[in-house]
Amino acid sequence: MAVIKTLGQFIIEKQADFSYAKGELSRLLRDIGIAAKIVNREVNKAGLADILGDAGTTNIQGEGQKKLDVFANEQFIAALTSGGECCIVATEEEDHIVQITSPVSQDAKYIVCIDPLDGSSNIDVNVAVGTIFSIYRRKSTDGLATIEDVLQKGTDQVAAGYVIYGSSTMLVYTTGKGVNGFTLDPSIGEFCLSHPDLKMPEDGVIYSINEGNYVHFPDGVKKYLKYAQVEDKETNRPYTSRYIGSMVADIHRNLIKGGIYMYPTTSSSPNGKLRLLYECNPMAFIVEQAGGKATDGRNRILDLTPTELHQRTSIFIGSKKMVEKAEEFMETYSPVA
Ligand code: P6P
User: Fold this and answer.
1) Alpha helix locations (H) across 89-179?
2) Angle, vertex CA 171, rays to CA 119 and CA 134, nearest 5
3) Which of 26, 89, 262, 281 is the most exposed place for a label (fewest CB within 10 A)?
4) Chain-centre distance of CA 119, in angstroms?
5) Does the keyword Cytoplasm apply (predicted)?
């Protein structure tokens, strides 16, 4: 009889790994897990509840907000507020940082950057969507935490994770000691350890990119795509193209099977589309902890210095050998559009 290990049990068990604010980080991770279960409940019945379609509002990116991403944003902020371990939330859905000023949170030690519902354009067509989160220590020591506490390099993350609301709902996270995956068992309402010590295959045959942007890609990307499509049995080419339009789902598949996800600069997105703080940094931390690699085509994602809350970057992330091969093409040909 397999022993069930819940997310809560695992977090407590691994608490000894934390050298700073052990109990607080454990509590924060559990708070995120609780909000994920609430969001999952709504995602799973999205077609029934009156939360499909647009909320009529737009986020700072000018993207139409679907009701479910507004709901998800509210749930995570509420969970982090009641948990009391987080003093600031930086979220894709809010133009500015959200100060958690409840008395309990005044001396909270952590900052959370979050994309509450990534890939939300897929909600109405029943395709996997995800939540992405990143956790930093607060650096300031007095008064209210500020944007300076949020603009930290990816190498300063203390934890990062994602939730994928797919054929099953999984929570995958790291605290810098490897990557572990938990699958939600709806019959007991618990995330249970299902993918201990996840490792990304060093190489792969899957590439994920929106080829609709082909004419706008840098030459290095165009050359890499042609390399991927040319037959060469020794290097298992042509590769397979898989693009879901949901970064969490594409990267999760590549984490399990091997592969590379790319969102390069294009002429319409000269700095790339994906956001550094709450999409690329957390996913890069997780993928590196699983043995993969994440760069902007030349520079390590985790080393990039954030200067703005919703800053964008190009990203090449996945199996180490595939990212390195793509970097070779970026190095040889023009690295920008
Ligand atoms: P495009 C979703 O909006 C997202 O941020 C990622 O999850 C996804 O991979 C990408 O953008 C899709 O962008 O331009 O290909 O539709």
Assistant:
1) 147-150
2) 70
3) 26
4) 11
5) yes
